[in-house]
Amino acid sequence: MKRYEDLAEHVASLIANGALRAGDRLPSVRELRRDRGVSAATVTHAYQLLEARGLIEARPQSGHYVSARLEPRSAGASRARTAARPTKVDVSELVFEILDSVREHRVVPLGSAFPSPMLFPWRTLARHLGAAARKMDPWSTVESLPPGSLQLRRQIARRYLRFGARVLPDEIVIANGAMEALHLSLQSLTKPGDAVAIESPSFYACLQAVESLGLKAVEIPTNPREGVELGPLERAIDMHKVRACWFMTSFQNPLGATMPDEKKRDLVRLLESRGVPLIEDDVYSELYFSSRRPRAAKSFDDRGLVLHCGSFSKCLAPGYRLGWVAAGRFARDLQRRKVMTSLATSIPVQDAIADLLEHETYDTHLKKLRRALASQQQSLVRSLRQHFPGQRVTEAEGGYFAWLELPPGTDSLELHRRALKHGISIAPGPIFSARREYRNCVRLNYGHPWSAELEHAVRQLARLSTAP
Q: CB under 8 Å to 58, separation ≥6 — which residues?
């Protein structure tokens, strides 16, 4: 199938499924060309093909719309280093000790896992949340049980269209934040004692999830620029009967690594050949600094083996706890597990975000947020290179984390304790490893507007790192 035919079929499937309805505006030729990385001619030919089939219509000076002549349809069914030996995970006490120590608002938040709350459109969110609560249909308390609000799932499916993944609304399960989506995914794929492949270093919440479910972690070496190494992964799958993988493929926490598109494709093909599902933790993908959002591994998934988890917490609505999983062939099981755990996700919150996505300039907010984070990254990296000369620091293409590698022999846990006494938080390397490795590394947050206080904190941190 030619690329324009493939794109046309994707749009047609969204129309047939109800994600795109009569009168809905389609992404512009320029948007699809940029976001999907195809030529303008490919998009134009796809739209011409859809026009010839009577599915869409062009409106002068306005764009392309789903044909107003189409009858509304209900949603249909969804489409169907050398790696370590498995390790029993026991990091929660260490993680909780460190997280409890950085909750204080007055502490300089270099160790925080969150961006500044001042970067988000609170008034806009409040307006939509208030309207959603006032207009809430009492029957929605039943109709929006798992998989969740159809309006919201349609809006999410439309964004997948822009970024090249074939996801229909019925595949999407709304969750209380990405962490619930990730936990539900892991529960659906494993049983206690199973081995799960994770990155090394890995986000500590992933380690805690593996620990809480009685699973064993197989840590896969992860390149600071290109993500998880496929050779060691392949050997680990064959040696340890890996039941599932949990990877951040874009702007990985803590390294900031992003797998190139070709490597993501190869990852999906490798896992398909072994029948191993991938839980793709993709909560930072909207926070890219280049001209185009990186493709998700989900966009290469032809067999429904990729469970793609996303969230609005990092890019739009912190504290609203709204995430989702595009669960492929596992969607029905995810729905049932959602019912058995938290039953449902807040109806007004779902309605508010769905309405905002439909009527507000979400992309305008994202552009502003990305500019702020990119500027803050430059300030932190410049400061680190000044005060930690010769030390290796990652400079990611998105997100809001930098990974600093200090000289061998440095104890980042001790540095954390020293820094905290001076009102500075950091995230020490051992909390990102099942084997408590990376003792000479720290993760630093640049999600807060740069200030003299932050500059002073980096300078003080450099002094503390060399103190006897």
A: 47, 51, 64, 65
